[in-house]
Amino acid sequence: MNLPHKLLLLFLLFFSAFNLHAQESMMQDVSNTYLAKLIDTATKYYPQVKVLQRKLNISEINLRKNKLSWYDVLSVSAYYSPTNSSNINLPNLTGFQVGLNINIAALIQKPFLIKAAKEDVEISKLGQEEYAILLAADVKTRYIKYVQSATILRIQSGIAIEAESVLKDIRYKFEKGETIFENYSKALVFMSDNKKSVIDAESNFLVAKTNLETIIGKKLSEIQ
């Protein structure tokens, strides 16, 4: 077979794949509504979100504890001295006596402890806000990877179908003696390469799907 016929064969092999690829776009499969649902699901089910909420709860409990502990700076003591006893230290005091003591050091420290507890609450809130931003970005990235892998898989599957069709046509011509074995061999190699590409695309798709489901805490089939 001369060079023009070989070029024609290669054109037939790659034209369908190129034409299919040129018309494909992942943008049509990106859904902002669905993405918002994924982010919302992740904020409800991802464990780290719950961990940060627990830390905030602890900070708020510590703040309330510090506000209620003002009376810790005070201490009350009671003494009883019988009327017939002889008290060398307090000779004129008999019966029940009540004393009030104030811990000056604790009194001075208390406002600072409450302020520190308030700051701890605010830090916990800011930590939640920061993580919410990072989590949303992570979900978006994994969702885009998922859509990308699904699109590539669809493209590769389409190319494999076209390659199989081309192979059947060349096999038919080879069996009739209308083309040489070299061309038939090239078609077989082309078909084999496409099957491998489909397997790779399937693997990438499953990995992307798993990564996305891991961060949202649910199966994608459960997100409507």
Please give a structural write-up.
With 224 residues, the protein is mainly α. It has one domain: Outer membrane efflux proteins (OEP) (Up-down Bundle). It is built from 5 helices and 2 strands. α1 (3-23) runs antiparallel to α4 (104-175) and α3 packs antiparallel against α4 (104-175).
What key phrases describe this protein's structure?
224 residues, mainly alpha, Outer membrane efflux proteins (OEP), 2 strands
Radius of gyration: 38 Å
Separation of the first and last Cα atoms:
57 Å
**Helix fraction by DSSP (H/I, runs of at least 4):** over 70%
Summed over residues and divided by their number, the pLDDT gives a mean of 78
| CATH level 1 name | Mainly Alpha
Amount of beta strand: 5-15%
**Major β-sheet profile:** 2 strands, antiparallel
Discrete helix count: 5
Please name the CATH topology. Outer membrane efflux proteins (OEP)
Number of domains: 1
**Structural class given helices, strands, pairing?**
mainly alpha
H-E order: HHHEEHH
Number of strands: 2
Overall outline: rod-shaped
CATH architecture: Up-down Bundle
The name of the CATH superfamily reads: Outer membrane efflux proteins (OEP)
Low-confidence stretches at least 5 residues in length (pLDDT < 50)?
1-11
- Kindly report the spatial arrangement of strands forming the biggest sheet: 1-2
Summarize the helices and strands and which ones pair or pack.
Elements: H1 3-23, H2 32-45, H3 47-68, E1 74-81, E2 95-102, H4 104-175, H5 181-216
Brief synopsis:
The protein has 224 residues and is mainly alpha-helical. It is built from five helices and two strands; from the N terminus they run αααββαα. The protein has a single domain, classed as Outer membrane efflux proteins (OEP) (Up-down Bundle), CATH 1.20.1600.
